[in-house]
Amino acid sequence: MKILAIRNYLTTPKFQKNNNPNFIKPIAMKADTVSFAGKINVVTLSGDELALEAKNSKLARRIGICAPEVKSDGTYQTQGKNADFASNPITKSHLKNVFKSIALMEENGIYHGDIEQKHLFYDRKGKVQFDSFRFGEIKSQNKDKYNARIAYLLSEGQGLANLYDYENHCIGEYLRQIGSPQKEKEFIREYLIESSQLHEKMSKSPKISDTHFEELQAKLYQNPDDDIVELVKDRINFKHTERMAFTNWDESASGSSGSVLDEPKALLGVNLYFRAWLESLKYIQKIEEIKTRTQDKDKLELLNYFEQYARHTEKNYEGSIYGMATWRLSEKNPNNVLFKYTSKEKLKEFEEKYQEIKNTDDIKLKCNKVGLIKRFYNNIN
Fold this sequence. Notes:
6% strand
């Protein structure tokens, strides 16, 4: 998994007025004056990675996706810069082009597989280039593998696999650069408005299994109300927290069999995962509250989709956290345990608290118990 920055809201920058209607407000601090529209980054590949990148990026270009051409010497050049709120903010034109590319991927059976902030290049004219196609699946090349990857992703309730990755990996990271919860909401509102056209297109596609979900998003994202904006923002944030958790957790183990443990990084991973779990539970509570005061039928249906997704995700967190928190509690690795300074009595108490959570159905009560076990876990480590 890729290295991601830990969430850290920066001091809110001074925003400058920009009369260009193409920019999403708020406008970030004035970008540097060096032109990056033609900035070139050279990537060198070899072996299987080279062959896959050349093959898959060629297919992407053929269907209209902006992707670099792999040269015979094993290199390719990307143009533009990664999104950065202060120096290279995402514009409406950027979003239009991202959504156009995602639509082309979905309609042509391409799962990119590595949509990360560092693999998208935004230039000053609104163009967006994708690279790193070598980790994806192409339906026409291997239908079974493609279907398996898509089914795994969509088991969480999202309608478009590539959009799922873009939101949780790229937009989740971008939100952390913005510096203000209110500015996050303003960006997400524009993001949803631009995405409504993508959902409209997908609602009419025979390649999409749940077109009704796409119809609801197309309709309600054209002019999203505060509730929907807040919920989408919160969902992207807790999914990105989950991603940071697994990044730190994966990077905590090294050696041929993961026998060496970087304890601070492992503990950070567990804590971030607890935080994602708490955020998902609060998200469900927020949906339940909004539903009590919502009469619009379409909005209620969309909220039900959101809740279904969140409950599935929360259950995944519940099932995974115990294994993460108690990993390597074996006599074979006495020096590689997160609980190596912990008495058996405290470990038993942790296990009892965890079982209490598993037996709790009430979301508010469960949220309180998860907060308590998180603090308990930190106190004994």
